[in-house]
Specification:
By secondary structure, the protein is α+β, with helices and mostly antiparallel strands. The chain contains 4 helices and 8 strands; from the N terminus they run αααβαβββββββ. About 30% of the residues are buried.
Amino acid sequence: ARVAHSVDSYLGTAAQIAFQQVIDRGWVIGGSSAGASLQGDPLIRGDTPSNRPVLGDHREGFAYVKNIGIDQHFLPRNRHNDLLEAISAYPDMLGIAIDEETAIVMQGDVFEVIGESHISIYDKTLWTETIFCGDFPFHGGPGRPVLSNGGKYFFLKPGDRYDVRIREIVAFAKRADDEWDL
């Protein structure tokens, strides 16, 4: 289902209010594809006629996570750079792109990546004009990563944990010794 159709059906209704009450009680809600995107605000892919525009005619999501835009299917549909448009329109927004068969589980301000693939994080506060050597390590542990060669996003894999409030990686899943050699 398109994101816009879900927003038209539920935004401001008793159902959406009930979903928020579930969250307020500390319980879990979930959503895949459009169901993941509509939980953010601003709304990503909220266009009525098509899911092609990153920012469509619907910009208000359910805001269960505020100032976070969530995109989906980004690897198989080659949407790696699509959230850059949203970041340009909303420079303070954190962008999260979630691949198929993958999810984030958020508790408070921290989420953990689960599933079979990756997510990517788009954080304009990390963008720099400095060009680092290609052999410069991405990151050696938790904290704020260095985006080399003008990068605009970085990947997290299952088991990695990220704090959306302070915008830092708080834990990495166990990796093979050579996995840091990007």
